[in-house]
Structures are given as structure tokens and as C-alpha cells.
Amino acid sequence: MFVRQALYSSNQTRGGYMDPRTEQLFGDGFSRNQEDESRRYNLLAAALISNLVKNSLGPCGLEKVYIDIMGEITMTKDSSAILRKLDVEHPAAKILIEAANTVDNEVGDGTTSVVILSGELLSKAQELLVSGIAPSVIIDGYLKGLEFSLQTLSRISVSSTSIHRDVMSKLAKTCLQTRSISGIVVKENAGAADLIVEAVWSIADLRNKTIDVDDIKIEEKLGNSADTTLLRGTVVDKTFEASLRVKQIENAKILLTNEELDRSRTRTSAELNISSFDQLEKYYKSEYELLDLKVQNIIDSGANFVISQKGINKIVLQRLSRADVLTLHRVKENDMLWLEKSTGASVVKDLNGTIPPSTLGYAGKVYEKLVGDDKMVFIDECKNPKSVTLMLRANSKRVLDEYHRSALDGFAVLRNYIISPRIVGGAGATEMKVATIIRDKSRQEKGRVQLVLQKFAEAIEELPITLARNAGMNTVNTIIQLRSKHMPANGKIRWFGIDSKSRKVKNIISSVIEPSIVKEQVLKTAVEVTCMLLRVDDVLMAKPNMQTHTHAGGVEHSHPGGDKKHDHYFDRLGKQQRPMHHYY
Hints:
Layout: H1 2-7, H2 20-26, E1 30-34, H3 35-54, E2 64-67, E3 73-76, H4 79-83, H5 91-107, H6 111-130, H7 135-156, E4 158-159, H8 165-176, H9 192-203, E5 216-222, E6 229-231, E7 234-236, E8 248-257, H10 277-301, E9 305-308, H11 314-322, E10 326-328, H12 333-343, E11 347-348, E12 361-371, E13 374-380, E14 388-394, H13 397-419, E15 422-425, H14 429-442, H15 449-460, H16 462-470, H17 475-485, E16 496-499, E17 504-507, E18 513-515, H18 516-534, E19 538-542, E20 546-550, E21 556-560, H19 580-583
Parallel strand pairs: 5-14, 8-9, 8-11, 9-10
Antiparallel strand pairs: 1-19, 2-3, 4-15, 6-14, 7-13, 8-12, 12-13, 15-18, 16-17, 20-21
């Protein structure tokens, strides 16, 4: 490094020793680790993070419990949800956590796999370093191994020109079989995977191979998990006014508006100088005449259900109720966006003129229903909805949070398949196929790269070995069986993986499949992170000045710059659903 060459003599002691000139230059609270010392610490940090999540992989993986500084408990098998909550200081650990976050944000699955693979690649790299192989040679070998892996995935993946619903069903079941939500059985013996497939199938643009997962609204209420359901419409967590005569309608013609149906208020402080009772009477009369005009325009439009983002005057409520028009006001902006897409309505911003019929939406049923301890409004049975609602039920908030995370993972996996309809076998079958081919190609290489490629193949095999270990299988016998099953045989692709239920090595392509894009993202991210850490030969670390502070929502934590005015992502409300790592 330039800093080392410029500031330190060649006879400087390596390791944890701090050169006196370093203290004079940087002051107290500064630490430095060099070459072997820094790589050893990087390996240790990566190994700790990898071991933390390793036993969560697969259907037989175990859950983790995290208790934050506020005493809030998170119970999950989602590695990214746990890792995002950890406050780590070591840069290698931070990079590994960021890698898991990247995979989660890009493809929504494979977070545990990328952490395990990164940790194993670094462990194999340490063995090579001890053998005297230079970091540059290891990096070249890993990059070549990544190239071979991507070529293999492209060759063995099963692709199609159209989207098949039965394939989507298998993908969803593969993704959710490792989560607790897989145990939900709803009406007509449908499972959570069936609801998730139905939700995605309802709103996806299969012709253009696009889908916006945020168009699926997720509502949570305490109750019986068997009552989890999917609605072809939108659920609004509000109630109708008690004074309304009608609280349920069929064949609803829906008007959405963000104009306030109440007496006008100025945006800034203002004064009205009224010198007589006649002027006051004229003023109130003119205001109510404007409201009467808006009410009449609503009635003339043919709408029988009005949803307003703002308030509605009580007199207006009474007039609309007498005309058998149902009303709902002060609806959240997010709900208005979902209502637009589910009902096909357009938000009307001006009610003073004629309301075109084309701006109205449609719903087969509108009704109020008691869900748990709260009443909610259901806008259901919409025609060709572009937004649907998944109503999750569970007996505790922690289980609901885990169901929510699992549902988001399922949506992400199906989105990956719609964008790129290429699948491969799961349960470690793809990793074994890639490792077998790389080990075969390594024999064609010359020099030390051959050893690097063999270690690369061993690192990839760690994923099926971990699956077998978590399932209680003998790992030595399992890896021997897998290697023998994946030996080349007449050019035919074999998909033998770990069947965690029967604890046997089986051909799993008919039941356990995953999108190829997830495997590609895991391999790319793991190799990039490993190569980045292998290039590090000097770690200069200054102790940050931490400030403890409390946010408006009651969140107390410490970080540099906490004494200055700032906010975090979880402080801001956006139009999209909050990502699960901040939402929970």
C-alpha cells in the first residue's frame, strides 16, 4: 500500500506491533494490522459470521432469536433479517453482511448460501496461503472458477419461452419449505405457496415478463393462521361511520378523490373581516353551496362508494348516505395507490365539474368485517385487479413478522422466474454439478491454478454438506454418494441432491427447483467478496466517536454523527412497502 511505502521503513515489525511513528502521526485510538495478521482477522470475522447462520440452511435449519436494545424480540430463519440487526465493527464482517444484503435486495433469496459460500472460500484461501500460494494466484483461480460456474449454469439450466404456473408452484414450495409459513393450511386444502402463486399470477404482466411486487399489499392481523387468505382487491384498515345507513354494497362503482369534502381551510394563517351578520350568513351559504355542488356531481356520476384521502364534512356524509352512497375518508396514500390498481379507478382531483364515468372503478363487493379485534373495510372481487391483498393471520406478532418475511421471499423468487424463466435443481444438486465440472476442468489447468480450482470446488460442496449436516445425515457418506451420482454419464444431466425429509440422496428435479438467476447472484457475490478481502494486506482503524441518541419513535442507538441533525431510512414513510429489514 502507498501509506506503508511512504511512511514506514522496510524493517518495520509486522503484526500487531504499532510503530512509534504511527502513533505520532495518527494519535491515540488508532490500530493497524498488516499482511498475515489482517488476513487472519478477516478470515476469523468471516468464519464467525458464516458459522452464525450455517445451521439455518435448508428445511431442517434452526431459527435464531435476536433481542435488540429496546427488548424487542425477532425470531427468524431469514439470515439477512438477523445480520442486518447486528452491529459489527470489523470491516470484513461488515462486507460479508453487505453481501447478504445485496443478494436479498437483488433476488430476495440465497442470503444464507452466499454467507456460507463466502466464508468457505476464505477458509480455503487461507489453506492456500499457508501452502505458499500468492493472493494474486488465488484471485485469478477464483475468477476462473466463477467463469466456469456461470458457463455451467447457463448450459445445465432448463429454460422456456413462456411462464408455466406449475413451475411457479414448485418454485414457491421450494422457497417456503424452509420457512414456518409452509405449515399453513387454508380453505380447500390450499397452502401458503398456493396463495403466493395466485397473488403473483393475478398481477403479473406475463407478456412483457414484468411484475411489481409492491402491488401486492400485505395485511397482518392476530388470529388463526388457517384464516390466512388472498383477496382480489384491497383491504383498508378503517371502519365506516357509525351514522351510515348502508355498510355493505354489491357491484360498487367507486370514486377515488383527494379533494376535501369539507369547509375550505387556508394553507396559511388568514383573517376574515366580517362586519355584519348578513356577511357571515353569505359566507357560510357560499361555502355550503360549493359542497352541495360537489355532492350533486358525485351523485350524478353514478358512484355509490366514495373513498377520500382527506376529510368529509358530517353534512356531506348525511347527504351522501341519504342517496345510498357509501363513504370512507382519511384513507392513507399507500392504500389509495393500491385501490387505484385494484379497482381500476382514477383519483379525481376536482369535484366542481362533471365527473367522467371512465374515472370510476369497480368492485363486486364492499363490506365491513371484524378481523381479530378490529373492523376493516374489504373492497373485494374486483375485475382484473392489478393489485391484490394477502391477509396474514397468526397467533403472535413475532410469527406474523416471520410470515411477512417469508411471503416477501416467495414473491421475489417468482419475480425472478418471470423476469428470467430459467430453473435449476435445488437441495444442493446444482452446487454438486458445478463442483464436479470445475474439478474436472481443473485437471486441464497447469501450475498452481489447478490447486485453487480444486479448493474452489470443495468450497461449493460445502452447501450440500451443510444441508446434510442440518438434516442429521452422515456428511462423509453423503458427499461420497453425491460425487458418485454426479460423475459424467453419457452427457446426461443428473439432479441428485439432499432430500431433507427422507434424509437420503435423491433425484430432486421433479419437486425441488430454484431460479437460475439466484444461483448466479450467489456465486458472483461470494467470489467478489472473497477476492476483495484477499486483496487487503493492511487494515488501518481509528476508533469512531459514537454518540448515543433517541429518535422520535423511541429507537435509541449509537453511531458517529449522532449528535447532528439526521434521519434514517426507517424514519421516512414512502409510497412503497418498507423493506423487511427495516419494517421488522
